[in-house]
Every structure is written in C-alpha cells, then in structure tokens.
Amino acid sequence: MWTALLAVMIKEVRQTVRDKRALALLLIAPIAQMLVLGYAVDLDVDQIPTVICDGDASPASRDLAADLMAGSTFRKVAEVKDPTKASAMLESGQAAVAVIFAPGLARDLQRGNPVSVQVLVDGSDPNQAQIASSAASQFFTLRGMEMAMEKLHLLEGLRGVRMARPSVKLEPRVYYNPQLKSALFMVPGVAVIVLLVITTLVTAMGLAREREAGTMEQLMVTPIRPIVLLTGKCLPFALVGLVDITALLALGAYVFDVPIRGPLPVIYLGTLLYLMTTLGAGIFVSTLGRTQQQAVLGAFFFMLPAILLSGFMTPIDNMPDWAQAITWLNPCRYFVEIMREGLLKGAGFSELAPQLASLAGFGILILGFSALRFRKTLS
Questions:
Q1: From start to end of the chain, where are the E strands?
Q2: Looking at residue 160, what is its pLDDT?
Q3: Residue closest to 176 by CA, chosen among 358, 378, 346
Q4: What does the alpha-carbon distance between residue 337 and residue 378 come to, in Å, rounded to a whole number?
Q5: What is the DSSP letter of 221?
Q6: For 290-331, how does the pLDDT look when each residue is reduced to its tens digit (9 = 90+)?
Q7: Among the four given CATH numbers 2.40.10.340, 3.40.1710.10, 3.40.190.10, 3.40.50.10420, the one describing domain 48-159
Q8: CB count, 10 Å around CB of 196?
Q9: Residue ranges of the domains in the chain?
C-alpha cells in the first residue's frame, strides 16, 4: 500500500510540474495575489475629494476651511460661491463632500449667535460617507468647544473671576492594532481566501484532467485501492498548501508588518484541518464535472459564497440573521478567526479549540463524503 501511495504521489507531482499552468497557480499565484490584494483591499479612507462653498468669504470661514483641509481625511478639489454648483459637483462625482459656509458666519460668531455649517456627503459609498460625516462632525464640534472656551476666558478676564467648568479627558487605548491599519485586518483573511482558491481549483482541475486525458481509466484497472489513489492525489497539494501558507505568513510579516504573536503550531494545525475541507471540496466538484471547464465553474460556485460569508471583508455581526446562521456552516469562517486571533491576538490552543474542533468536523465530513463520491464515480 505504501509503495502504491508513493507511486501515485510521484506521478501527481511529475504531472503537475509538467503542467506549467498548474505549477504557476500553485507557486506564483499565491504570492502575486497576496501582494495585489494586500495593497488593493484597503479600508483606510483618506483624501476624500471635497468642494468648499464659502458664501461668507470672511477670515473666519477661510480659517475653518483651511483647518478642515489640514488633516489627511479631506482633500479640496474646488472652491465655489454658489451652493448649487457644489451640489452639482456631488451629482457628477467630481466631489464626495461639499462644505457650505452660509453668509454672515463671521458676524454671528462675533455676536455669539448659533452658527450652522452644512456638510453634504455622497452616500453611494457607505464606508466613505460614514467616515466623512464622522470626521466633519468631530471637527466642527471640537472647534465649537474651542470657540466657547475662548469666549469663557475672555469673560473671565473682564469679570476677574474664574468660573467653574466641566473637565472630561478621553484616553482611548487600542489593542492589537494601535495604528488602525487595515492591512493587519485584511492580510490574514487574504491568506485564507488565496489558500481556498488555489487548493480547490487545482484539485478539481487535476482530477478532471485525468478524465479528459483518459488516464483515469488506466488507473482504474490497476490494483491500487481507491482510497490510496485519492490519498496519493491529495497529499502533494496538501504539502503545497503548507508551503504556500508559510510563504504568505512571511510575506505578510515582512511586507505588511502583520505580527505573528500566536504559536505557529496552532496556525499550521488549523491550516491542515482547513486543507481537508478545501481539498475535499475540490474532489467533490471534480466528480460532478467531466471537463476542466466544468470543474472550474463548479469550484467558483462553491468558493464565492464561502468567501462572502467568511467575514473576510465585512463583519459577520453586520449580516442579516439568516446569513449569520449560514456562516456557521462555512469552514472559511473558522479559519479566518484562527488566522486573525492567532496572528494579531496571540491566541493559542485553548482559545481556538472551538474553531479547530469545528474545522476538524467539517474536514472529516467533507473529505469523507467526497471520498465516497469519488469511489462511486470510479466504480
């Protein structure tokens, strides 16, 4: 049995090496995808194009506009006098934010009257709109407090009496990602998705290629048992998956500064259990199609829902209740949690035991069912 297993593994490795497309998909594509997705999937929002409509044209309004643009959140693209032109720039997509200062702003500030500043935000991009609204609201709230304190100091100087005032000091502490870099959140998830795509596609295409070439029939007449044949075909891709995750971890650490705080044995154990599900899915898809094109389409039919429901891009808690229930049946969800908790928070075996146990259960179930399906297809 061991001789037959080794022979099948050697055959699979040689066949993969001869297929330049499969070899590139296994070794080059993971690195390229990590670099592209790591830089492209960026949730940090800054330099939002902003149009300023200064109807007051006073030093006070100019100072407010300059201070608002001084940070990295907003970027001034135009300055107009007519509010309708500012709205038109929002409609045309030339700007995402319009800040409108009404006439008489400086006069009302001097008299101590309430002052309103209108901020129009393009909501077609909800993430950008939320950040822009929050940043603008925070800026004008703080400036209002500063102006109120200046008037209070002036009043104290005139009366010669110090007035009591409330004092609140906020000191937030951000754990695990103090700089709030989106790459530290996204890169572990990107590694999960890359591993899913590579191993599922290559396994499905490899078995479909055997049928197209007619070599599967030749293997069927040999004394090799189906379980040995299946194991020999999966083990090389499992080893490649471990090599890929090692390269992705190194790339994430040295290029994107993703920390590796947790024990690596937990990460590799989770990877092995995760590979059981991805390889099993590839085997199952290959039994449904007769050609490589059908295998690729079937693989994407499985992978797209798995990616969208994994929590890779959007928090699972923000999904509808019915979608959250479905995520419990998605192995990608558990491996995303293992990667993020292990790398960023330093979680070990005890903290990640539920996720590891779930992956083990799904791996045994999917791989076992796929093996039965594969055996039935051979017979």
A1: 48-54, 74-80, 97-101, 117-121
A2: 59
A3: 346
A4: 37
A5: T
A6: 777 888 888 888 888 899 899 888 788 878 889 899 999 999
A7: 3.40.1710.10
A8: 27
A9: 2-41+181-378, 48-159
